[in-house]
Amino acid sequence: MRQTLRARSFIMAGSLSLLCITGLADTTVRQLDDYHQAADKANVVFGLPLWEKTPAQIQATMETAMSVGNRRLDAIVALKPEQRTFDNTIKALDYANFPVSAAANRMSVIQETSTSKEMRDIATQAIQRLETWFVDTSFRRDVYEAVKAVADTHPSVSGEDAMYLKTVLRDYRRNGMDLPKEQRDRLQMLKNRLNELGLKFQRNISAAKPLVEFTREELEGVDEDFLNNKEVLGKDGKYRVNANVTWQVLEVLRNAKHEDTRKRLSIARASRVLKENTPLFVDILKTRAEIAQLLGYDNWADYRIEIKMAKNGKTAWDFLQRLNKGLAPKFKEELDTFARLKAKETGKADARINYWDVGYYKHQLTKTRYQVDKDKLKVYFELENTLNGMFSIFEELFGIRIEPVEAPYKWIDDLRLYAVSDASSGAPMGLIYMDMFPRDGKYNHFAQFDVTPAKRLPNGKYQRPVAALICNFPPPSNGKPSLLTYDNVETLFHEFGHALHNVLTQANYMEFSGTSVPRDFVEAPSQMLENWVRNKKVLDRFAVDYRDGKSKIPTDVLNKLEEVRLATIGTHYRGQLAYGLLDLTIHMTTDPKVFENVVDVTNKVVSDVYLPVPPGSGLIASFGHLGGGYDAGYYGYAWADAISADMASVFKKAPGGLMDKPTGMRLRKEIYATGGSREIENSIRAFLQRKRSLEPFFEFIGLKK
To answer: Are residues 34 and 544 in contact, defined by beta-carbon separation less than 8 angstroms?
Structure first.
């Protein structure tokens, strides 16, 4: 039973120039109408939604979607007992939820991308109403009794149908349908309140604009292109860095020579929306704890993780602590290395590494010991060429075509749209929007958003999906094209992987389509694709110096980048583990004192596992993951990393390496196409063709088993 909006795929992570390094690409920008014949032949619905352009249209869409959903649920209830079947009662639930999910997905994109504050605010209100609809309808006793009546007949279903029946009954149990009415009513109220609080929490983060003013001297060491960027350099000649815009923050923290500059920016970022969001988050924690207790769980983590691979909070906690302990010597070694660099640079023998120093001295280590300046790699990753190269790689690997399409409606002028088709049959698979550059009010990191969910419709046609990549790449500036950092390219491959997971789905139920898989697995296929950016043969297909169109990244540079990755991986993972343990610390308890002191409690976790946080920090207040979607789930990044490394090892051992077509097609069939339509362990095993192993992950992070 779909109870909440389809969760967005986050990773912290996308117009097309038409000349690929590997050859001349098709320069034709196609129209959607060009795909109609192929869509009819494939018996699929392939197209774009009608986007809401005014507050009134948002309101109308919301009301219509809920009305249609209600009518479909009422039709299920109205059936006489002798008329009930699996199809018209159980399967019909997925169809009833479809219009509301599709509307809510569009509202989420509008909320995070619209240039109009009024539209963003109205979309936020609409999402809240739609979330309430999902909660309220999941508590409809009449629908539950209709479902239970069919379930009690033990219908003869198998495969995906059996999986859906199991999921529906599980979700009703997790919604307290076996509880007394008074407790059910309380639970319903709490779930609606939780949705409302989560939306406010996220919106406050997106709307924040903490500007930190610097002089040119204070930004010594920062790239000249950055200093000349109109988003940073004001007409008055002053530099204002937005602590809520990730690419701006990373540029300064990695390159600014003056420690005070890095410290001021770190403090501003770590204290974003502290005043606004701390009381909201306290309420969120209390509400979550009460929901868990009402349902008979020890805590929120156990409730949330029950339906994931880890199954409970203790398993997730033990996994993180195992890594935390294993990485301790490596982490200390890396901090000592950074401290020596700082001592040499500052002349202070007792120099200590602070929270705001890590990015800078990682970068210095890369440049000094390994003679690699990541910033200088940007010339190899001009945006248009990088996109073309990535597309050609995925086309070859997964047997697809990716073509630019004219978008009938654009919420921003430089919005891009791509159609994905099966290369063999020509069948349209899905559409992907890419919103490339930062702007005020826009979601400030990288993420893939669902737009139109995929599913098999009652008339037998298959609704093909639409997805959107919301990116924040450095924009073109001063006559130079958009140049991506090496990390940007990893993020691009990662996030486009989420989009492929969506558009290559073949699951019959919306509940299981695309990235609707356990949240501690969803990142694994995309994290795996980051390996392609580390491979010389893959990069040589597209990574050339845009200034001469032919110079490629030297082999020794890539080898050194791998050495750098291993040399700083302890710092990276201890940071990730700090956030994962922070998350579980506050969600594996029901103690009100912990909730009331959540800023101090969480700051202490980060300080103990990683480094002392900046003065005045309230990291939890801007930790958007925990506002909804990844709560009690941040451990899933490391968990998925372990699976990702195992999956990548299959490609690395294949005859064609990372470009091995049979392995790519097996990934498409066993992981992308199936989504959540079967137990995820079965999908993983079908791809690996063996049991899961942690050995590739330990090798990836430089640890012995």
So the answer is: no
